[in-house]
Design brief:
about 270 residues; four-stranded antiparallel β-sheet; three-stranded antiparallel β-sheet; about 55% helix; globular
Amino acid sequence: MVAQQPKSMVLNIYGAYGRRLGGWISIAGLVALLGDLGVDERAARSAVSRMKQRDLLVPERRQGRIGYALTDYAKDILEEGDERIFARRPPAKLEDGWVVAVFSVPESKRGERHLLRSRLAWQGFGNVSPGVWIAPWRLADGARRLVLRLGMDGYVDLFRADHEGFETTAARVARWWNLDRLGAEYAQFAEEHSATAARWRRSGGDGRAAFVDYLRVVSAWQRFPYLDPGLPSELLPPAWEGERAAEIFFDLVDLLSGLGERYVSTVLSRYSA
């Protein structure tokens, strides 16, 4: 799995705990929590500084202590992430059809074109051909919001479609998405985290360990709901690992979230009094 950067760790701390514990975290408390995750103080403060520059955190002083709260922009990012990361999505239905994004962007806007392509991929779209991207229909509203947010609505058309030939839909889907790679990454996730889930079910652990393991599993999982469009079951390869990986993830969320939150609350209280 890709190593988590300190900036992402900070955002995950706010997303998992900060919002439910008042929305503000002192810099001392944040440094302490990041230290539990293996981030030294210099890297922690540097990450916070970069997030302030990118309009993700805003400085606030409370009771004489320096700390940071989320900006509205960061809150929107986290709320959108909640819908993807923590939603138990059933597979799409084949009869619902597909959303197809078709665009032609001039060379003078190649930067915007590249951003559009990368964001569509991050939304779970598969690439049919240059300028043609496809996803299960239920991703249509998200695609519409994305195009409007990027200001690319003058270059993009969205269609509702059915696949009518000439190869089978399953064969085409295997070309539009790299399901072999995604399945292998799901299998790796399951292998890495199944032992953690078994250990917590068997013997549990303390609050600090719950906090660390929770952030680690969320960090490892959070990319999958964006890369995986939730294809209809009949189009997936045999022995698809996505379902097993999801069960392990949600099992760990149930096991760790409450205990980890109590630990974080204790740490933040220590540095906010």
